[in-house]
Amino acid sequence: MNRKPSTIPVPVLMMIGIVAISFSSIFIKWSAAPASIQGMYRLLFTSLLMLPFARPYSGALFALRKKDWIMLIASGIMLALHFLLWMGSLKFTSVASSTMIMALEPVFIMLGAYFLFKEKTAVSALLGMGIAIAGVIFIGWGDIGISANNLKGDILSIGGTAAVAVHMLIGQKVVVRMPSYLYSLIVFISASFVFAIYNLLMGIPFFDYPPREWGIFMLLAVVPTVFGHILFNWLLQFVSATTVSMNILGEPVGASILAYLLLGEQLTGLQWTGSLLVMCGLAAYLYAGRKKGKDIAPVLDNAS
């Protein structure tokens, strides 16, 4: 496949994207609002930013079948669950622990694809997966030594990672029938409604937040989404999906550095060991997938 060259060096754009998505967990930590409110407004504001560019996809919208709508809503529910659990995890554990666990998303997707669609995986990829999972165990072990709340945060992050994996597997089946932009927009809006219903049932106020919180909600929509995930999708016209997907290794590193500089968070020896194992395992997993010729394509509404 021939790709046109970028007027801006691709490594510079990738670095911008990595820094942007790394700020996601920092903004969440800075906010005092409930995770369900943060998630609702992040998705709502992102949807509003996307709507002006959705008109070319109106034809595809009316061509959707009832089954497609059911799958889209299910995907939205899982995306909302992902944000609820992952954002909630940051109330209890460190940015580094939470984002390292979230980086295991491709592994969860691989496991889901095996059990749901009987997709086979190379032995080298399984080895990488095993190393990454061992790393998560080390992170959890290290967090136990800090407090029970840290371990609770790790468990929430694992749940959030599993939820986003299911969301991505649903999307894999639906996106073949519609443009990915339209898929993302509908899922974002669906997840926003799920959050609205959740907040209503739980009695969580919708509007009683200071201006600083509203600024953080908007930053969550703009920085990690527009300058992160949307930028990565745009880069697919210049580089392969595998190259772009390797940025998943950059987010935990970037987020950990930012958490150290902006939040004063530090890691224990066990957490550093676990983080290194996660990164090495994921690198091996993604490299094995590349050799097999199956790219891991980034999706606009990916995780963080």
TrEMBL record:
- Topology relative to the membrane, per the entry? Multi-pass membrane protein
Which SUPFAM superfamilies does the UniProt record give? Multidrug resistance efflux transporter EmrE (SSF103481)
Segments traversing the membrane: 12-33, 39-57, 69-89, 95-116, 123-141, 153-170, 182-202, 214-232, 244-263, 269-288
Could you tell me the keywords of this UniProt record?
Membrane, Transmembrane, Transmembrane helix
> Where, subcellularly, is it found?
Endomembrane system
Q: Which InterPro entries match?
A: EamA_dom, EmrE-like
Query: A Pfam family this protein belongs to?
Result: EamA
Residue span(s) of domain EamA: 12-140, 152-284
Which family does the UniProt entry place this protein in? Belongs to the EamA transporter family.
What this protein is called in its record is Multidrug transporter
Whose protein is this, by species?
Answer: Paenibacillus wynnii
Tell me the classification of the organism that encodes this protein: Bacteria, Bacillati, Bacillota, Bacilli, Bacillales
